[in-house]
Design a protein that fits this description.
Layout lengths: L1 E6 L17 H11 L3 E6 L7 H6 L2 E5 L5 H13 L4 E4 L1 H5 L1 H4 L5 E3 L6 H9 L11 E5 L2 E4 L28 E4 L2 E2 L10 H5 L4 E2 L2 H10 L4 E4 L8 H14 L4 E6 L7 H9 L2 E9 L3 H6 L9 H10 L3 E8 L6 H13 L4 E6 L7 H9 L24 H15 L2 H9 L3 H20 L1 H8 L13
Parallel strand pairs: 1-2, 1-3, 3-4, 4-5, 8-11, 11-12, 12-13, 13-14, 14-15
Antiparallel strand pairs: 5-6, 6-7, 9-10
Helix pairs in contact: 9-10, 13-15, 16-17
């Protein structure tokens, strides 16, 4: 078969705008499909527009979607269906809402798709019964059928390296994405990772990861792992292996603040090429952290940050605003903390009820979600009624948080200190935030006069 795989673009500005970092699901599946003899081409819309002539030539089209890209994914799927092509959809959003997705596509691959997708193709080709393919949803006489879920992949070393060369425009990718583990033992209420990839922490061997690092042409690498530093023993082995191999990469990863407990490990991480940690602080409000099930004590944040920075590693701080315990004041205190901590960069995302999370189920039950326009589910738009402030107040404080952190004053301070990289980052980020406000002016006007009771008559309903 000739198979075209598509990753739809995110709507408008998002926190990673400007960073061409494709998700790894499609490049891994692309590698697998090629090993079965199929011809594969991937279009990641953030990198290069879809070539519809290629889509018309395809025997099958696969589309991967997260919640914020779902509407664009459905739009693409509808157009592909109009060509008479079979459409398969996968990714977190459709995993949790397969019945919705089946309005636009023929098949949904739920959960991890590396084993399911090739079996589904065999079923389409008539080589195996469709009802025997685990993890697939489809329709029979307009009724949705959800085959039993497939167990999670236990040996990640069996997965091939994601083939980024299959992505049209791949030469634009300056930071190479890589995955060394899946799953997270924690269970934050707003996160869909554990529902998608489980709580068991599954890892690739150090040798396997090192081999991929040697093959990657880019100097900069980002580990997509939700908690890269979970296994400390393995982390020591990984750092030593990189150092001894002579591989010279600048890399960053997501971790928890408690990585600061081991200063010797921090120094080893830096020596191995780690330059930046993405850390989910979420809030400095203890009640908010309890609601998020974060199991962190904010009183230790500043000291931990000092240790990480002392080891020579910068920090991108991640904060989530809008819990039932949050107020306008607690959000402002969180922003003050981020500035006081001298983080290299920060994001202040609005709490978003993503399908599949406990938070989504809770708000559905309480009827606090006022819109299911999935394009607004990007962490930059309020889509539910918060407990201790108005919808407008939460939206406004999120915008203010970004502007206060990426302030002109902070920019000029860094210029005066000859910190050119951070000064450039501050200026670029501020420009993007201003652009977001302009792009979303109508949405902001709607929220300013919005009351939850009037939602059914609102343009947001």
């Amino acid at each position: 078969m000739y198979i075209v795989l598509i990753e739809p673009r995110a709507p408008g500005f998002n926190v990673f705008s400007g960073i061409l970092l494709p998700r790894l699901g499609l490049p891994i599946i692309g590698s697998i499909l090629r090993s079965y003899g199929h011809q594969v081409k991937i279009f990641c819309e953030e990198i290069k527009s879809i070539n519809w002539d290629e889509v018309r030539k395809a025997d099958l089209v696969g589309i991967s979607s997260i919640t914020s890209t779902a509407l664009r994914a459905y739009e693409v799927a509808s157009r592909v269906k109009a060509f008479g092509k079979p459409v398969v959809m996968g990714g977190p959003h459709v995993t949790f809402l397969p019945e919705e997705a089946l309005k636009y596509c023929d098949f949904v691959v739920r959960g991890e798709g590396e084993e399911t997708f090739p079996e589904l193709i065999e079923a389409i080709e008539g080589k195996r019964p469709l009802e025997k393919v685990r993890g697939v949803s489809y329709k029979i006489k307009e009724k949705a059928v959800n085959n039993p879920l497939r167990p999670l992949i236990t040996n990640l070393d069996e997965l091939p390296r994601p083939d980024l060369s299959l992505i049209e425009g791949n030469e634009k990718i300056k930071v190479a994405p890589i995955m060394a583990s899946r799953g997270c033992p924690y269970n934050c209420s707003f996160c869909s990772v554990t529902k998608m990839f489980g709580r068991a922490y599954r890892v690739r061997s150090v040798e396997n990861v090192l081999k991929e690092l040697k093959e990657i042409k880019q100097k900069a690498v980002f580990f997509y792992d939700d908690n890269f530093t979970q296994n400390r023993k393995r982390l020591y082995e990984f750092c030593q292996a990189i150092i001894e191999s002579g591989v010279k990469k600048i890399w960053s990863a997501q971790t928890r603040i408690d990585i600061a407990d081991d200063f010797n490990l921090l120094k080893l991480l830096r020596k191995s090429g780690c330059s930046l940690f993405h850390i989910g602080f979420e809030s400095i409000n203890p009640e908010t952290l309890k609601l998020y099930r974060k199991k962190l004590d904010p009183r230790g944040y500043l000291e931990a940050i000092k240790k990480i920075k002392k080891a020579g590693i910068d920090i991108h701080g991640m904060f989530v605003l809008g819990s039932d315990a949050d107020t306008v004041q607690s959000i402002r205190e969180t922003v003050k903390f981020a500035k006081k901590a001298h983080l290299f960069s920060a994001q202040f995302l609005i709490l978003t009820p993503l399908p599949g999370t406990p938070f989504f189920a809770e708000l559905e039950k309480r009827e606090q979600i006022f819109t299911k326009d999935w394009s607004l589910y990007d962490g930059h738009h309020v889509v539910f009624q918060p407990a201790k402030m108005s919808v407008w107040e939460l939206q406004l404080e999120s915008v203010k948080a970004f502007l206060k952190f990426y302030s002109r004053r902070e920019f000029f301070k860094n210029v005066a200190a000859f910190h050119w990289v951070r000064a450039y980052y501050l200026a670029t980020a501020r420009k993007k935030i201003k652009g977001w406000v302009k792009q979303n002016s109508e949405f902001m006007k709607l929220l300013e006069n919005f009351t939850f009771e009037r939602r059914l008559n609102s343009s947001l309903s």
